Amino acid sequence: MTQCLPNILSLVAAAAILFAGCSPSTPESPRRSRAPFGTLGGKEVFLYTLRNKSGMEARITNYGGIVVSLLVPDKSNKPGDVVLGYDSLSSYLKATSYFGAIVGRYGNRIGKGRFTLEGKEYALNVNDGHNTLHGGLKGFDKVVWEADESIPATQPSLSLSYLSRDGEEGFPGSLKATVAYTLTDSNELRIDYTASTDKPTVLNLTHHSYFNLAGAGSGDILSHELMLNADRFTPIDSGIITTGELKPVEGTPMDFRTPTAIGARIGVKDDQLRFGRGYDHNWVLNRTGEGLSLAARVWEKTSGRVMEVWTTEPGVQFYTGNFLDGTAIGKGGKAYAYRTGLCLETQHFPDSPNKPTFPTTVLRPGEKFTSTTVYKFSVQ
Ligand code: GLA
Fold it and tell me: Which of 53, 135, 159, 380 has the smallest number of Cβ neighbours within 10 A?
């Protein structure tokens, strides 16, 4: 403190010293702000903006935990929005593509919408032919989540919770799920999931952003180069249900162990590509122990943007937007045509509740489910 005592001979110098080093603490700028986004069923829906110190900005709504926009700098440091989405809540309410959403209670498919747990068979709402996809008719992407406003706005974080009641969409047990989004100063969008239940249930939470590293609405993603850190994938049948096998990618169009343009083999004659109408499969990640492990790396040449995906999950669904058909009119009036976004949905394997050899998705009372995925951006 002695160096901070005012020097009567030089008030100006003293003031400068005080300002530089000894003021109690300079107020931190807010890194999270909130604006109204509409109402649903009497509940207020907000659009939160998170900003880091390195040029990234995410807008996230508590409807479906949806990432509405994600601004990421390109190789000339110019920010661009790299996720598909809509400008208004009303568009999200009509949407069918899960743009940017948190998906649950069970992300991906459960064959015939049925599974048996502890000797009891459960019948779920089916919404994808005879199957249950992404939680059923009204999954976690279509509900209003509660935001934890007690987290200081100086943190670029948003924590959302949802209580899914016992029997919702046919799933057993009241499940409390929390999803925390954080923008780090190393240009990462980090997602931390936690959950607990009061009865045995099955759970598979994921995030469903459609990325286009050249910018949302700028064209297809076929020239993006992809690396998937996986020696095996889970083959599907013609109904996009996993067969239960773990098949080597070696010698197939599913081999992305070295960076390859997404479009390089998407059109080849191959049963798996035919069943998925392109890539719509789960890869079995080459994991190294517990904790975050590299799942995927995507590079888009013109913008120079790179996205790495790190996860604690055992699998990733790589989906090439094969169901997009140009009818979705997104942000700024841009139509999202066939294959203009790619999803990397970190997850447990599809239809695990019916595939006893897959890693379990069962959550029991007293257990705490945790899972983390990081989307890390850079340029090259
Ligand atoms: C996932 C599925 C796809 C499709 C999309 C949403 O990626 O695997 O088959 O349902 O979600 O359209």
Answer: 380
